[in-house]
Design a protein that fits this description.
The protein is α/β, with parallel strands linked by helices. It contains 45 helices and 59 strands. The longest helix is centred in the first third of the chain and has 20 residues. The protein starts with 5 loop residues before the first helix and ends with a strand.
Length: 1462
């Protein structure tokens, strides 16, 4: 039998023939050619080198001499062949298994043990199955290993006649399995002859031998270290990727001859038989697989994009600075700092409350590391012999909350010349992840684990009290390294001097997407080079402070926070993950507290801090010069960076500080963006077509398309490194300039190998890229990073995905990160717990199918989650709330109030909901049962101490008998954190409306009188007064009617509303007007703009809203965040979205989601954009907004203002048919005496004032003297009084102060029209009759609001308005971000927010004093310089000056500088 393969071995084959044979084997394994075609082509290639037999066709002779895979074993026609999935990292697990088998064979061969021939037959199948991942559990691996020999033993021995040629074919077709199938003692790499059939043991004896070989796991490290392998000669130009992974599986046969898995029950097999496809004759576009099933061949699309650019070149990084300043090794640096700077802080550890529990100095780090090294080498013995010797591996088992002990253990191992292997703390004895870690520990030969006393106590224990043996782990000795367990070394003991050599410094574990774990070995030389490259790229200097949020045991957290920081004597503040979960803003607070110069975060940390920063205005990031985003290569990173910059740029964060980077376990840091002061080019981003990316082609998307991916650069190549981009599969040819490939790195700062796995190490760490002509580009090997990307302008690196997440569906490739980003764009915060989404692919019917797994939030209902899932899959609006649906929801709420809460008519109910449809349904549910709703803003989870008392106060003042809310807020109101702020035992009945039953009310309540109370409107004024007004049913209907007439709100209109829905006009527009008028409303909560600033404008453009409402804070946010991006907005893809909206057919609010990408923003549809406010119109802001977004089609006359107050929420609205708003200029000096004198534009002391909108139908306005209550003419400034059917009926107070009620809501003029009842607004203004006419032909009366009467400053016998003084101060210097003024004991206090250097604070004092004196003739009594964000501003964008005054008097402002000009 062995002689049949001799002619092939006797004739030497040229290299080109061997290469053709290898490509032919690859085509066969991937299913690109049939078995018959393969044999025919192979026979033609070998016809010249094989002697011809007489009368036999060469192809037939080849078929006879070289049996193919289908002839190697008897049951081949019934074996099921697996279709390859083209995902590179699926090979890791099977390659590890192959390497283990290889090591075991070498071990047994060296011991000269007899090898049963049945094992050779097992190897024959193992060589092909090397790319088929085994089962996930170790138990299933053992069972499979026993089942496969059993299947082979049942076949006749004659079926293995062609074992040697079959092994040869397996070698040529499987690069990674060559080591396992080609080891031989014969010269030239020829396989050993197969014993004859008589010499082969059979029956139970063979099975017993096979079982013995599988009974114990092989020692991989021993076999690899003690045996030198001889690899078979094979045609290989360079290391190749994308080798075949198909193979035959172990199958059994039923009585009917149907192949069936040994674990499949008969019922399931019967179902499979019924679903089996009928046989059909194959056509030319079909081929037949091993089971004779007809499969369609994937025909390439002739119109698919193809790369057209030239060949890329090798990108060389800047030279690594070589000089005497670099230390010879990292340990030498530690010794230097530990002896010369012993008191310098090295590492500060925080607890879960954010308190610093311990600061490790460099002296302590050096002394403790020495003690540990001495203990490890001299005090640990086993049978009177040292337990450890230099080069041994040691496991480091430390929790993420203890960076101090981990750092000591890491450097202690390095000083003892041991190799640390950091791993995660195992949770349970049978944790699947820890089993893979156990395989890593076993392959590394780890016998000792270092941990802390606290961590050891938390580990699972056996009955003996010792640490339990974890499943799949080798036997370990546990050593607690707390101080009392270590021995102080003698004074004459010193660790051996160790230079940065090629020996392994540490091993970092890596988990592939299949769950297999491998160890990445990093040498001492690579460790030192990585620290030097990071120091040069990031510009680290001595004594800098670094805030680290990442895991310090691996990746960037280890490289920056443990290694490079010690080289530069930096101070690292480590933020534990538990603290981030409790307070996502903690890392920013620590940056402020420690004045950190650098920070190390991920995109999730930036996103969480955005959600937590609301209400936190005492933070500043001005000290940061470097913000490293470790996962900057992810597609969702760019949105997090943009949103974070938009919010925190006003708090000192500079745009050039954000530095995304790209890294991989194999190549360590690949690229990082550098600030301009370190020579970095300006950042760039690219809008790419996702359709072209699926074909591996780069096409910039400059048009309006539905599918684009916006990516940012990850900076420049690391110093001392060379980078190239090669093709993902096959020979590593250089890619073209417009082609996506795998990034490869040649540098001294990369990892060196997969520990103990030589086969796959060669493929990854010893790649030789070649040009299109086949010439190597370098004589030094490159390391594959596993990152997919390309080189962009300015030699910047762009990453578009990872090979771990590459999935092939049809002929297109999709990346898991892109799909995760798409899913995260659809309301992730409401349904997905902490954004936890996983994407992978499974093989179904010989093709990949994408699976998306999202972790549902505990407070999300199943129905809502299923609707979210539909929106993710379809990308369209699938959930709507029609009229009948809202009616049913309201009925359910009403039934719950009457049955569960047992409320009666007239009872007050507090509605504590986030903005959404639930708030609207709860409001009408209260009206259905005759209760009085009170809308309350929910408390902020990250700021309960400030926001929860306000909620409790409104509930108590309104005398609410019940609180309606969601399940999540219910838990928040009763949480331990809430107990520290309020007395949770005094809450009234709290009713969760998420799980109320579907019940109807017997009858809907009808108010007996129109004057009956409908709802209470509670709000906090700018003077800090909390009060609620009563709105009757008659006033509510009149309000909706006036707004409908003024704004022409017909059912066919689309209205976009970006206002808070809790009080005033915002509540009326959210909950009342859409129901009354029947129009379509697109509701955008303003807090959502903090994470996606373009959301409101996108909604206006998408739904072609004719009328839109917003607040000054929303307008200012858009102007700041999007002012420089108007051109990009036309085509930019917006990924984040949260939109309650209404269905055009139902005219009721609903939930919706846009497609993953958006078309260009077009605001030409806007007829009126009204700013809702209770203050003087901000002319500068409205004009700048109009100019900024004019390029997007916003009409010049569209922006206008409104005016309303507590007594009447809608006095003036511009409307759609009225004349344009007019602007007049008045003398500021006359205003101080309550006189109105018009002047020309540009005159000295001129003040521009814009009318506050057109007065609503049915509303009468008069200007009256605030003290004498007499009417005033148009040349006088007085209080605005209003008479309207939709005015509130009075204040609702606990003590029933009727005097306050009569004074504000039932005022009458002292002379003139003394019969009309007026409501006093508390605002100063004047009326002017203009020459313009309205739609009815009458002349238009314009109302000009100057300011609030309660906020005016009475100084020197004159009336000053704070906004005028604040405007002068803000204009005085560019470093003044904001300003607020108030009076204190007749002294003028000016609070200035400094957006600049603190040393400039003293210069601002004289500047502020001079400008106020020159323009307003006032002497400033106190100047307070504070950090940005200190001045409180409410949700409408209005300054809370009285709150600021209270904070100043209580010394709570934490000022930078205070100057008293007494």
């Amino acid at each position: 039998m062995a002689e049949r393969g001799c002619p092939l071995e006797a004739v030497p084959l040229p290299a080109e023939v061997r290469e053709s044979l290898a490509e032919l084997e690859l085509e066969l394994s991937e299913g690109d050619i049939t078995q018959k075609g393969y044999e025919k082509k192979r026979g033609k290639l070998l016809a010249r080198y094989v002697p011809l037999a007489q009368g036999v066709d060469p192809s037939l002779q080849a078929e006879t001499r070289i049996p193919g895979p289908s002839q190697a074993t008897a049951p081949a026609p019934e074996q099921q062949k697996m279709r390859p999935s083209h995902a590179r990292d699926e090979r890791f697990r099977s390659d590890v298994h192959t390497e283990a088998v290889q090591a075991a064979l070498a071990k047994y061969k060296e011991r000269k043990m007899p090898m049963p021939s049945k094992r050779r037959s097992v190897l024959t199948h193992m060589a092909v199955e090397a790319y088929t991942p085994p089962d996930t559990s170790s138990a299933s691996e053992d069972e499979d290993s026993l089942q496969r020999p059993g299947r082979l033993a049942s076949a006749p021995l004659q079926s293995h006649a062609g074992v040697a040629p079959w092994l040869d074919q397996a070698v040529q077709g499987s690069p990674a399995s060559s080591a396992a199938s080609c080891t031989s003692s014969h010269p030239g790499g020829r396989p050993a002859a197969v014993p004859s059939a008589a010499a082969v043991p059979a029956g139970p004896a063979a099975l017993a031998r096979v079982a013995d070989l599988h009974s114990a796991p092989p020692d991989v490290t021993t076999g690899l270290a003690q045996h030198q392998h001889t690899y078979c000669e094979r045609p290989q130009l360079a290391s190749m990727r994308g080798a075949p992974r198909g193979g035959s599986r172990s199958v059994l046969e039923t009585a009917g001859g149907v192949p069936v898995s040994s674990r499949v029950s008969s019922k399931i097999q019967q179902l499979l038989n019924t679903l089996k496809k009928p046989k059909r004759p194959p056509l030319k576009e079909f081929f037949v697989d091993d089971l004779e099933e007809v499969l369609e061949v994937q025909q390439p699309d002739p119109g698919q994009p193809k790369p057209e650019g030239g060949q890329t070149a090798v990108l060389k990084g800047e030279l690594l600075a070589v000089g005497s300043t670099w230390p010879p090794s990292l340990l030498a640096t530690l010794q230097q700092w530990g002896t010369t700077q012993p008191k310098a802080p090295c590492l500060t550890a925080l607890d879960t409350t954010g308190k610093a529990v311990y600061t490790l100095t460099y002296g302590k780090l050096w002394s403790r590391s020495l003690k540990l090294a001495y203990t490890l080498l001299n005090k640990l013995t086993s049978k009177n012999e040292p337990l450890l010797k230099p080069g041994d591996r040691v496991a480091l088992v430390f929790p993420n909350s203890d960076p101090v002990m981990f750092t000591v253990a890491f450097y202690g191992c390095l000083l003892a010349e041991l190799v640390p292997v950091p791993i995660e703390v195992p949770l349970t004895r049978k944790d699947a992840g820890s089993q893979q870690v156990g395989f890593l520990l076993g392959s590394c030969g780890v016998a000792l684990a270092l941990t802390t006393d606290a961590c050891q106590k938390g580990l699972p224990k056996a009955q003996t009290g010792e640490v339990a043996a974890f499943k799949g782990w080798p036997p370990l000795t546990w050593l607690v390294i707390d101080g009392k367990h270590l021995t102080k070394p003698p004074k004459d003991w010193h660790p051996s001097a160790q230079d940065a050599g090629a020996g392994t410094a540490y091993i970092e574990y890596k988990t592939s997407k299949e769950g297999s774990t491998v160890g990445v070995a990093v040498s001492h030389a690579s460790l030192l080079a990585q620290c030097q490259a990071l120091t040069q790229a990031c510009g680290y200097s001595e004594a800098e402070t670094l805030t680290n949020v990442l895991d310090f045991k691996r990746d960037a957290g280890l490289w920056h926070g443990v290694l490079t920081s010690v080289m530069n004597r930096m101070h690292v503040v480590s933020i534990p993950y538990a603290l981030m979960k409790a307070n996502p803003l903690s890392w920013i607070q620590k940056v402020c507290a420690y004045k950190a110069r650098a920070a190390l975060v991920k995109s999730r940390d930036m996103h969480w801090s955005l959600l937590a920063q609301r209400g936190q205005r005492d933070v500043s990031l001005s000290s940061l010069r470097l913000l490293v985003v470790a996962d900057g290569a992810n597609p969702w990173s760019i949105s997090s960076c943009d949103a974070f910059l938009n919010v925190f740029q006003a708090r000192g964060l500079r745009p050039e500080v954000i530095c995304p980077c790209a890294s991989s376990p194999e190549a360590l840091t690949v690229a990082i963006r550098r600030p301009p002061d370190l020579g970095g080019p300006p950042p760039r981003r690219a809008v790419l077509s996702m359709s072209c990316l699926s074909h591996g082609v780069i096409r910039l998307d400059a048009e309006e398309k539905l599918s684009v991916l916006t990516v940012q650069d990850v900076g420049q190549v690391m110093p001392g490194a060379d980078v190239c981009v090669v093709k993902v599969e096959g020979t590593p040819y250089l890619c073209k300039t417009d082609e996506v490939g795998e990034i490869c790195v040649n540098s001294s700062a990369t990892a060196t190998a997969y520990y103990g796995l030589l086969g796959i190490t060669k493929n990854i760490f010893e790649t030789v890229p070649v040009t299109a002509g086949g010439a190597p580009i370098s004589d030094r090997p490159f390391t594959r990073t596993g990152l997919l990307g390309f080189i962009g302008p300015d030699n910047l690196v762009f990453v578009v995905g990872k090979l771990d997440g590459l999935m092939v569906v049809g002929v297109r490739r999709h990346n898991a990160d892109d799909i995760v980003a798409t899913a995260l764009a659809v309301e992730p915060m409401k349904f997905v717990y902490r954004g936890r989404i996983a994407v992978f692919s499974v093989t179904v019917l010989h093709d990949d199918r994408i699976v998306l797994v999202a972790e549902q939030r505990p407070d999300a209902s199943e129905e809502d989650s299923f609707q979210w899932m539909s929106r993710v899959l379809q990308g369209t609006v699938t959930s709507t709330t029609t009229c009948i649906q809202l009616h049913k929801k309201a009925e359910r709420v009403a039934a719950a109030l009457m049955e569960k809460a047992r409320l009666t008519t007239g009872a007050h109910v507090a509605l504590v909901y986030p903005p959404g449809v639930d708030l609207i349904a709860a409001f009408y549910g209260c009206l259905y049962c005759g209760c009085v709703p009170v809308t309350v803003r929910p408390p902020h989870p990250q700021n309960l101490a400030t926001t929860l008392p306000t909620v409790k106060m409104i509930v108590e003042v309104s005398k609410s008998a019940c609180v309606l809310t969601t399940q999540a807020i219910t838990r928040l109101l009763k949480s331990k954190e809430a107990l520290a702020a309020v007395d949770v035992r005094t809450w009234p009945t709290i009713l969760d409306t998420d799980d109320i039953p579907k019940k109807k009310v017997a009858s809907i309540f009808r108010p007996p009188s129109p004057d009956m109370l409908a709802y209470l409107d509670f709000s906090v004024s700018t003077t800090g007064i909390l009060a609620g007004v009563k709105m009757s049913h008659a006033a509510t209907s009149a309000l909706c009617r006036s707004i409908k007439l003024q704004c022409e709100l017909y059912p066919s209109r689309q209205i976009a509303i970006c206002l808070d829905p809790y009080c005033g006009l915002g509540f009326a527009l959210w909950c009342l007007c859409s129901v009354y008028s029947g129009h379509q409303s697109v509701l955008v909560p303003p807090p959502e703009l903090e994470t996606n600033v373009s959301l409101w404008l996108w909604a206006v453009s998408q739904y072609k809203a004719r009328v839109t409402f917003c607040s000054y804070s929303v307008m200012e946010m858009c102007a700041r965040g999007l002012g420089a991006q108007t051109a990009v907005l036309r085509v930019r893809a917006v990924r984040a979205w949260r939109e309650p909206r209404t269905s055009p057919s139902s005219r009721k609010p609903s939930r919706g989601a846009p497609p993953p990408a958006m078309k260009g923003v077009n605001l030409s549809c806007v007829r009126t954009c009204m700013v809702v406010a209770e203050e003087r119109p901000r002319i500068a802001l409205t004009q700048s907004f109009s100019k900024l977004f004019r390029d997007l089609g916003l009409p010049a006359r569209a922006v206008s203002t409104t005016f309303g107050c507590r007594v009447n929420v809608a006095i003036c609205l511009q409307g759609t048919a009225g004349p344009d708003p007019t602007t007049v200029y008045v003398d500021m000096r006359a205003l101080r005496h309550d006189r109105v004198r018009l002047v020309e534009r540009g005159s000295p002391h001129s003040l521009p004032l814009t009318e506050s909108g057109k007065i609503l139908p049915g509303v009468k306005v008069i200007i009256a003297h605030s003290e004498t209550r007499g009417p005033l003419g148009d040349s006088h400034l007085g209080e605005v009084w209003v008479s309207s059917p939709h005015s509130a009926t009075g204040y609702y107070t606990v003590y029933g102060e009727e005097g306050l009620h009569a004074d504000h809501f039932s005022a009458r003029l002292s002379f003139g029209d003394t019969q009309t009842v007026w409501a006093r607004t508390g605002f100063l203004g004047f009326l002017r009759r203009t020459e313009l006419t309205d739609a009815s032909g009458e002349r238009h009366d314009a109302l000009y609001v100057v300011g609030s009467l309660d906020e005016t400053l009475e100084l020197r016998g004159m009336r000053y308005h704070p906004v005028d003084i604040e405007t002068s101060v803000v204009r005085a210097h560019r470093s003044i971000a904001e300003c607020a003024v108030f009076t204190w004991t007749n002294l003028l206090v000016v609070v200035v927010e400094l957006d600049g250097l603190e040393q400039d604070a003293l210069d601002l004092v004289a500047l502020v004093t001079n400008v106020v004196l020159e323009e307003h003739h006032l002497v400033v009594g106190v100047v307070v310089i504070v950090d940005p964000g200190v001045i409180p501003i409410n949700s409408r964008g209005e300054k809370q000056r009285m709150h600021l005054r209270d904070g100043f008097l209580a010394d709570q402002l934490d000022p930078i500088y205070v100057a008293y000009n007494m």
